[in-house]
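ligand=guanosine-5'-triphosphate
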Amino acid sequence: MSQRAGFVALAGRPNVGKSTLVNAMVGRKIAIVSDKPQTTRRAIRGVAVHEATQLVLVDLPGVQRPRDALTERMQRRVEHELGESDAGLHVVNGEQGVGPGDRFIAGALLAAAVPVVVAVNKLDRLDRERTVDVLRAAAELEAGDDVFPISARTGAGVPALVDHLAGLMPEGPFLFAAGDTSDQPILVLLAELIREQVLRRTFQEVPHAVEVVVEDVEERDDGLRIVHALAWVEAESQKGILIGAGGSMVKAIGTAARRELERELGTRVHLDLSVRVRRGWRADEGLLDRLGIE
Ligand SMILES: Nc1nc2c(ncn2[C@@H]2O[C@H](COP(=O)(O)OP(=O)(O)OP(=O)(O)O)[C@@H](O)[C@H]2O)c(=O)[nH]1
Ligand SMILES: [Mg+2]
């Protein structure tokens, strides 16, 4: 069988489960997930091999109306990646149904002129009747040629989707080396795993105002790794929330994040996490460049 390889860009409203689906298809956690919209800020490529096909899944920020330099860059990235991909995967939240946001995304996918597959996600939350309704509404979206019912959380329907996407990829050599699962630099992944724990514990504007940077990982002779990380917020009040009464919040975040870092690195970890105020970081173009949010 000849080899195939190509890019599949995931488009969808915030919070529909794109990152959960990429992790399920890759078979490993490469993208963080949260119940807050706008979790994903950078395009992340994840690699899945299916028979003789390498699928490069491009996890993207959710499509939304831009509010600042950060969200403008997130939107530009989505448009750019759709144009460069070999197929678009439109992920719809089955629990919420098909809405105006989905029709807008279908229009963008149509403009990108790539084959489009629609995945209706979170079907573990729906009964049969609602499933039938949402699948029918998804089939009416103009861009999609095929509709797949899935649950990214349980994995139901995911193998059939992967098999179908593989058939859309062009013939050609693999794009990533065997064993590579993502293009994300390790320091960015570590920072994201810490941010995921922040997202779990914060509400309202706070999750959107936090960015985490891992400055350095020291390796000691006894194998312990010391991860030096900064959590940036935009205001003193947010810093207070992140630190918590008597440091209780930053401690809880640190303990949970350290476990995730240990799982990822396969060693014992000491996490040195401090919180700093950096006013207006979401509007600072030079800083967004340095953060790799482009
Ligand atoms: N019940 C259920 N929940 C799901 C499923 N897939 C994702 N979720 C949940 O939906 C929420 C959003 O998931 P994400 O994967 O972060 O969504 P996303 O589309 O990447 O979101 P953004 O990056 O913000 O655009 C999380 O709480 C997930 O656990 C699913 O199949 N079933
Ligand atoms: Mg995401």
